[in-house]
Amino acid sequence: MCDAFGPRRIQGDVSLSSSFAIDVPEALLRRAQRGEASAFEQIYRRFERPVFTLALRLTGQREEAQDVLQDTMMRLFDRIGDFRGESPFWGWLRQIAVNESLMRLRRRARQGLAEEADDEALESQDLLLPPAAADAALLGQALQRLPDATRSVIWLYHAEGYTHDEIAGLMGKTASFSKSQLARGTRRLRELLRIETEVHPHA
């Protein structure tokens, strides 16, 4: 398994990676744990973008990603006193954001809502991927065209560094489910990327 913030390859030079590994000064954490509003605001500003980006990658919808951001931060404020520094702060907060995102996906599945990303999300690649090159943008667009569960498995495995057992626990599935979604999604991504690169040969 790679480092939690390191990329895993999908195809050729195209990879997924989580771009955020933010340190939080211990003094700032202590102030927040004492209930200082200004400290909470600083932490919110530090993690607003990475939490939103992760939520948007998993849910595929900006409105839901914004809701996940707010819910995650509310849980953070409620539970920050439980953080003991035994793991990186972003890893701890990221787990809350992942749980909130997957909970919304389960709710969406129960309600039978379509698994299609909205147009605004598809047009927001600058928020989601480093301004590397066109192949990264094409990968982002292809990811949004996958079903919710498949996209979630791919992102959690490749970008966030979760194992299949960990993904299974998060999603209430089996490790075999995670592996099959990863294999199926990777094949589909390759198909989509071939199509996109043929349509945009100079990308």
TrEMBL record:
The RNA polymerase sigma factor 70 region 4 type domain, residue ranges: 138-189
One GO-annotated biological process of the protein: DNA-templated transcription initiation
Pfam families cross-referenced by the UniProt entry: Sigma70_r2, Sigma70_r4_2
Keywords recorded for this protein, A-Z: Sigma factor, Transcription, Transcription regulation
SUPFAM superfamilies the UniProt entry points to: Sigma2 domain of RNA polymerase sigma factors, Sigma3 and sigma4 domains of RNA polymerase sigma factors
Residue stretches making up the RNA polymerase sigma-70 region domain: 43-110
Molecular function terms from GO: DNA binding; sigma factor activity
Family (UniProt): Belongs to the sigma-70 factor family. ECF subfamily.
NCBIfam families in the cross-refs: sigma70-ECF (TIGR02937)
Listed name of the protein: RNA polymerase subunit sigma-24
Species, as recorded: Arenimonas caeni
